[in-house]
Amino acid sequence: MKTVMILGGSKGVGKEILKSCVKKGYNVAFCGRNQEEGHKVIESTQAQDQLYFHKIDLNDVEDIKDYYEKTIERFKKVDALILYAGTTSIASILDVEEDVYDSVFNINLKAPFFLLKHVLKSMVEQQSGSILFFGSAHMDYGEVDRAPYALTKSSLYTLSTHIAHHYAKYGVRSNYLVMGWTNTEGELELRDKEGVSEEKLKEKASGIIPMGRMLNTSDPIPAVMYFISDESAMTTGSLMRITGGEFI
Predict the structure, then answer these.
(1) pLDDT tens, position by position, 16-55
(2) d(CA 233, CA 239)
(3) Which of 83, 82, 65, 86 is nearest to 184 (CA)?
(4) What pTM was estimated for this model as a whole?
(5) Which residues have C-beta within 8 Å of that of residue 27, sequence separation ≥ 6?
(6) CA 144 – CA 241 distance, rounded (Å)
(7) Which domains does the chain have, with CATH numbers?
(8) Sequence-distant (≥ 6) Cβ neighbours of residue 109 within 8 angstroms
(9) What is the Cβ-side half-sphere exposure of residue 217, based on CA atoms within 13 angstroms?
C-alpha cells in the first residue's frame, strides 16, 4: 500500500487529491492550520485508518519536521510527496512590504524545501519515491502584482529539476505540474476581497482562457494520480501544464 504525503490537503485541489488517494486504498498524511477542518475531512471520507492529519504552522521548520516524523511513525514510509500548499499575496515589486515578501517565501518555498530535506532522505534510503510540485503559469514572469509569488514558483521548478537530475540514481523522480486558473477556496476568497463574485470571476476567466472556462478542483487530479502511480516510473524532470491553454 502506498503512502502519500501532502503539504496541504484540507482544501481545494489538495483535498481532491486526498479523496482520490483514499479511493485507491493509499494511506494519506495531510496538514493544515485548522484542526477542526482536518477532522472534518477525515470524518467525511470514513477512512480513519488511512488518514493522518497534522496541524501545522508552515512558517515553523521544526513543526514541518514534526509533520514528517509523525507521518513516518504512523505509516512507516513516504512513497509520494505532493507539494500543494501555497499563498498568492497581491504584491508588485514597487509596493511589496517585507512582511508580505517573507510570508510568501516562507510558505511557498521555505516550507516545501525543508519538508523535502526530510522526505528525500527517506526516499533515497528506500531507493524509490515520487515528488510532485504544484506550480503556476506565473513561473515564467508573472502578472505585475504577483512578483514574490512568481519568484517562488520559478524557484520551485528549479528545485524540481535539481532533484530529477541528482536523485534519479536513487530511484527518486520529481515533476512539476503547472496548474492554471482554478476556482479554489483561496482564489474565491481573494477575489471576494476585491469585490469580484464567483459568477463574475468565471465570466472573466471564460473570456481569457482559450478553452473557455477556469479549472475546477477536479481537473488536475488524473495527472496527479499518474505521477503518484508506478505508471510514471520513468517520468522525471517533466513539466506538465494543465491550464486550459492559458499562458501569462
Answers:
(1) 999 999 999 999 999 999 999 999 999 999 999 999 999 9
(2) 15
(3) 86
(4) 0.94
(5) 1, 2, 3, 4, 50, 51, 52, 74, 75
(6) 21
(7) 3-180+217-242 (3.40.50.720), 185-214 (no CATH)
(8) 152, 155, 156
(9) 19
